[in-house]
Give the backbone structure.
Amino acid sequence: MSNTQDGVYTNLRSLVRLRFSAKGFNYLPGQSVRSSLSGRKRSQLRGRGLDFEELRRYKPGDDIRNMDWRVTNRTGKPHVRVYTEERDRPVIVIVDQRLQMFFGSIKKMKSVVAAEIAAITAWRVLAVGDRVGAILFNDNTIIEAKPTRDERRVISWLGELATMNNNLSVNTHREKNPNALAQALTQLERSIGHDYLLVLVSDFYGWNDVALKALCRMNSHNDIICSLIYDPLERDISNADSLIVSDGEFQLRIDPAKQALVQNFEASFKSSLAHVQGELKRHSIPVLPVDTVTPAADQLREKLGGGRVLL
């Protein structure tokens, strides 16, 4: 594990600085075929569209593609349909900062990567002119920030996110709360309407039917994208010299050389990961696995940008 402070914890300055990395990807339609969002059978990722405003007489310079030929033929005078760009779609980022996320083996803690994904998403949303808010949660607290275009208010909740991140420690006696994910999603469901984009950033610890049902209900009228944060060590512990696992009170030394232990550990992780992905896939909710080693912005560009630079 890197000893750099940025790897263990983040801070507001680092989260604000990520605005310069928030480019080259898009949560909206028109994705490259390489994008993780391309080819959805039931895509609700609408982006901005057009709202019909009025029907009026044709004026020089009007787009002929908007000509209403039925009215034109009936009246004998050219008429066009006038459209205005529909209102923006608010975005909510749901960020997991539970003790379970305070884990990392090489570069960064899962909690830090989750905060970075949230910040990059927020800056990207602001850059395209939409509103962005957040649900920040740990094992015992949920903080809600309403969607806004006000950069100062976004920086305010990024500061709360940094504070929540810095409060994580294995030396605290706070118990893990496997129900916190479901509780955060339930609160979110009560506070939103239709046509939101929801970006859930978590390792999905405590995934259960309550969380799934809440997501499915929201997915019927909103768009949801899940960023599943994981550490490479969770997938493969065979290369570790030795491991010390702690629950914050007791410690246990594990010998990765014991093949049966390695296989059981990795099988358990892959099974839980496949379970979450499988359930979400059945409901057409995209899951983007994000590791703790590769820079977060690079992973978003790879999975959502298809290698294109989107300004």
Summary: The CA atoms of residues 72 and 78 lie 5 Å apart. The longest strand covers residues 50-57. Strands lie at 50-57, 79-85, 91-96, 132-137, 142-148, 197-202, 223-230, 243-246, 251-254, 287-291.
